[in-house]
Amino acid sequence: MTDAAARRADQFKRSIVVVEDDGFMRSLIAEYLEKAGFLASTAGSAADAKRQIKAVDPDAIVLDIDLGPGPSGLDIAKTLNINSNEVGVVFLTNFSDPRFAGYDIKAAHPNAAYLNKHMLEDSSVLVDALNAVLLETGVARYRFDRRVDRPLGKLSSSQIQALRLLSEGKTNQQIAEIRQRSLAATESLVTRTLEALGISSGADMNARVSAARQFMAKVSAPRTETR
Amino acid sequence: MATISARQSLRRILGLATDPRVLSAPVIIVCAVLSVLIHLAPNGGTVHGSVWIRIIVAVLAYFPGLGTIAIFTLIAKRIQNESVRIILMLSSYFLGGAMRGLVLSISFYALGMSESLNLDFRIPGSAIPFGLAISAATYAVSALEESKARIGSLRAMQAELTDAVSLSAEKNEALRERTISKIEESIQTELNKISSLKNYTSAEELRSLAADVVRPLSHTLAERVPTWQGKTQQSTVIRWRDILRQIRPELSLNPLLLTLLTTATGLTAFIYFFGPALAVLLVICSAVAMYVMTSLLQKAAGWLKNPSSLIGRALIMTLALGLVSVPVGLIDAIVVRESSDPFFMFRAGLILVPIFGWFIALGGAAQSESMRIECDYNEGIQKLSWLRARLNLMNWFEQGELARVLHGPVQSAIHQGIIRLGKDNGSTEAEILHDVQNGIEKALAPELRWEGERKTCQELCAELSFTWADICKIDFAISPNANSALAGDPAAASLCWDIIHESCNNAIQHGKAKWVSVRIADPTDNLIGIDVIDNGSQYEFEKKPGMGSNMFDACTVTWSRERHANQTALRASLPIER
User: Fold this and answer.
1) Which residues pair with B572 in a beta bridge?
2) Which of A141, B111, B162, B473 has its CA 20 to 30 A from that of B505?
3) Option in A70, A102, A120 nearest B463 (CB)
4) pLDDT digit string, tens, across residues A79-124
C-alpha cells in the first residue's frame, strides 16, 4: 500500500481515545484497538483526555473510571454527554458493579457500554463493545454492570444501599434515619435484602453479620464508608 | 449597640428575678431571713417588745405573702408574653410584701407591741423593700440554677462527644481486622480468576505470592489506622465554695442596681417620717450620692489587687458596701437635721446596702463561676469535636485509600500478570510473576503508595476546572498557607478534594450551575475552611448519590449548606494536623 493509500485508509478509520491511568493497560488496549483496525490515541488523566478529545475528535472513548487522584472517568463521560452525545463511551473498569461505589453510570452517559478489566483476556469483547456503541445496536449486551450473574446482581439499588449501611454496623433505626424512611419500611427493606441474599433473618445478629461478610467479600469499592 | 446590650442585660436580670424559682426552698429560706432583717432594720421605733417575738412574727408574716406569690406564679405559667409575665411577677412580689406588712401591723397591734396599726407606713414600708428583697434573692438563686442547667447541658454534650470518640476508636480497632480480611478476600477473588489458566504452576506461584507478600504488607497497611482511647469524663458540679471564691468587691458594687434597690426601699420611710416634699429631696440626694459613691468604689476596687483569701475579700466587700452608705446617710442627716432622729437613714443604710450588695455579688459570682466552667467545657468540647472529626477522617481516608489501592493498582498488577501469562510476549513466567509481585508490593507498601503521584489540592482543582471548562467556569482560590498545610496532611487534602469534587459535580449535574467558586483560606487553630459557592438551581442534596450529610457530620468539625440569593454555599471546616 502506498503512503497516500495508507493515509486514505487511516482517514476512514474510526478514532478512539483510550483513557487509562495504568501505563501497561493503556498501551495494551491501544495495541488491541490498532490491531482491530481502529485509530487509537491515549491519555493517562482526565486533563490529558480532554486535550486528546479536542485534538482528535474521536468517534468513541474507552474510559477507566478511577484515574487516580483528580477528576475521574465519570467526569469525562459527563462532559461528553452534556456537550455532544455522538461520541460513544465504553467504561473499562475494575468495579464489578458501579452501584457499590455510589456511581450512577446512566446519569453519566446513558448509552455507554460497561466492561470489567478482566474481560481483556479476550480482546474481541472490547472490540465488539466498541462496535456496539458506535453503531448504537446491542449495547445492552455489553452492560456487564447489569448482568444478573454479577455479584449481588439480584439486589436493587435500595437493597445495595441498605446492605452497605448494614456492613458498616448500622442498626435499623440508624439506617432509617440515614435513608429518611420509617423504621417499619426499613425493617422490611432489610428483611427483603437478607432474603435476596439467601440468608435466614433469624432472631440473632448472625444474619446481619453474614450479610455484611457477603457484602465485604464481593465489594471493596472506594469510600464505601461514606457514601 | 451599647443601649441594646444594656437593655438586654436588664431584661435578663428581670427575667431571672421573676423566675418560678421564687418558690424554691433556697429562695424561701433566704426571704424568711430577709423578712427578719428588714423588720429589725431601724424603722423609726414603731414597734417595741421582745426581739424573739418580733423575729417569729417577721418570719410568719412572710408566708401569706408567699401564698400570694404562689398564686401569681401559677397564673404566670400560662402567659406567653415575657414582658407581661415579668410585670405580673414583680407585682406579685410587691403585693406579697404588702401582705407581709398587713400581717405585721395586725400582729404587733394585737400583741400590744405597737400603739397603732400604722397601716399607711407598714404596708408600703413592707411592699417595696421586701418586694425588692424577694427579687434580689430570686435573681441570685435563679442565676445559680440557670448556670447549673447550662453546665449540665454542656456536660451532656461532652459525654455524647466522648462516646462518639470512643466509638470511633472502637470502629478503628474493628477496622484493622476488616482491613486485613478485605485485602485477603480481594486478593483471593483475583486469584480465583486465574485458576482457569493453563499453566497450573504459575497460578500456584501467584497464590503463594499472596500469602508471602500481600498478607504481611496488608498487616502493615492496617497498622496505619490510628487508635485513640476515650478518657472518662469527671462530672462537674457548681459548689458554693467555688462560687464564693469568685466573689469580688467590684461585683457587688453595681451602681445602678444598688442605687435602685436601696432608694426604692427607703422611699416609704421617707414619705412616712418626713412628708412627700422632703422625701423627693431625700430620694434625689440618696440616689445621686449612692450612685457616685458606688461608681467610685467600684473603680477603686478594680484598681486594687484583691486578696487571695475569701475572708479577706468578703471583709473588704462588706466594708466597701458599708462605706457606700456613709455619705448617703450623712447627706440625708443634713437634709433632715431638724427631725428627732436625723441619723435614722444612716443606721438603716448600714444594714440594707450590704444585704443588697451581697445578693448582687452572689448572683454575679454564680454567673462568673459558671462562665469559667463553661469556658473549660467549651474548650473540651472543641477539642473533642476536633478529635472525633479527625478520627473519622483518618478512618475514612485509610478505608478509601485502601479500597482504591485494591481496586486500582493491585487488581491492575494481577490483571497484567494474567494477560501476560496468556500471551506469548517473550517474557518468562518467572519474570511475569516477579513483575506482579513488584506491582503489588508497590501498590500496598505504605511508603511506596502514590509515591510521586500525590498532587496538591491546587493542581487537582486546576484539572477539575480544565475538565469542566466547556460547561461550567470553576474558579478557585487556595491561599499559599492552606496549600502547604494540605500538602503536609494527605488525609485532610483527600477529604478537601472529595468535597470540592462532589460539590462541583452536584452543582453542575443536578443544579446546572454555570459557575462554581471554591475558596480555601489560611488554616486557623488546626482547622481549615472550605467554601464552595455555585449559581445552580436548588436540588435535593440528600437524595443525590455521592457524599451524604453523614460524611459531613462525621468528618468535619462544622459544616453548613445554605441557599441565598439564587446561590448555594457549602461551608465546611476540616480538622487538619499542622
Assistant:
1) B530, B559
2) A141
3) A70
4) 887 766 688 899 988 776 676 666 667 777 777 888 887 777 777 8
Interface membership of A127 toward B (CB under 8 Å): no
Averaged pLDDT for residues B22-31: 89
Q: Where is pLDDT greater, at B384 or A208?
A: B384
| Out of B74-78, B145-149, B503-507, least confident range | B145-149
A176/A182 Cα distance (integer angstroms): 6
Per-window interface: A 169-198 vs B, CB < 8 A: 169, 178, 180
Q: How far is CA A50 from the centre of its chain?
A: 19
Residues from chain B contacting residue A76 (CB–CB below 8 Å)? 467
C-beta atoms of B501 and A216 within 8 A = no
B519: three-class secondary structure by DSSP: strand
Q: What angle do CA A204, A210, A212 make, to 5 degrees?
A: 110
- Residues in chain A with CB shorter than 8 Å from the CB of B174 are 169
Task: Report the gap between the CA of A136 and the closest CA in chain B (Å).
Answer: 24
Q: With an 8 Å Cβ cutoff, is B196 touching chain A?
A: no
The predicted structure's pLDDT at residue A40: 92
pLDDT(B4) > 50: no
Q: Which domains does chain A have, with CATH numbers?
A: 3-146 (3.40.50.2300), 157-218 (1.10.10)
Please report the number of interchain residue pairs, chain A to chain B, with beta-carbon separation below 8 angstroms.
Answer: 129
Cβ–Cβ contact A106 with B under 8 A = no
- Which whole number is the average pLDDT over B400-418? 74
**pLDDT tens profile B158-195:** 777 777 777 766 666 666 666 666 666 666 666 665 55
Q: Which residue, B384, B368, B362, is CA-closest to B154?
A: B384
**If pLDDT is split at 50, 70 and 90, which confidence band does B142 have?**
confident
A220–B contact, CB cutoff 8 A: yes
Distant-in-sequence, close-in-space partners of A160: CB < 8 Å, separation ≥ 6: A97, A99, A100, A152
Q: Would an 8 Å CB–CB cutoff place B181 in contact with chain A?
A: yes
Tens digits of per-residue pLDDT, B262-303? 888 788 778 877 888 888 888 898 899 889 988 888 888 777
- Distance from the Cα of A179 to chain B's closest Cα (Å) equals 9
Q: Which DSSP letter does residue A111 get?
A: T
Distance from CA of A11 to the nearest CA of B (A): 27
The verdict on a CB contact (< 8 Å) between A47 and B467 is yes
Task: Find the closest chain B residue to A118 by CA distance.
Answer: B415
Is A56 in the B-facing interface, judged by CB distances under 8 Å?
no
Helix (H) or strand (E) holding B515: strand B515-520
Residue B502 vs residue B190, higher pLDDT: B502
Question: Any chain B CB within 8 A of the CB of A199?
Answer: no
Least confident span in B99-108, B165-174, B232-241, B508-517? B232-241
Chain A residues 72-101 with a CB less than 8 Å from chain B? 75-76, 78-79, 82-83, 94-95
Confidence of residue A225 (pLDDT cuts 50, 70, 90): very low
Coil/strand/helix, residue B80: coil
CA distance B342 to B327: 13
Cβ partners under 8 Å of residue B134, min gap 6: B22, B27, B31, B34, B69, B93, B96, B97
For chain B, domains (ranges, CATH) are 169-229+383-444 (no CATH), 457-575 (3.30.565.10)
Rounded Cα gap, residues B459 and B476, in angstroms: 11
Quote the CA–CA distance of B506 and B385 in Å, as a whole number. 28
Q: What is the pLDDT of residue B218?
A: 57
State how far residue B371 is from chain A, nearest Cα, in angstroms. Answer: 35
A57 contacts chain B (CB < 8 A): no
Cβ pair A227:B548 closer than 8 A: yes
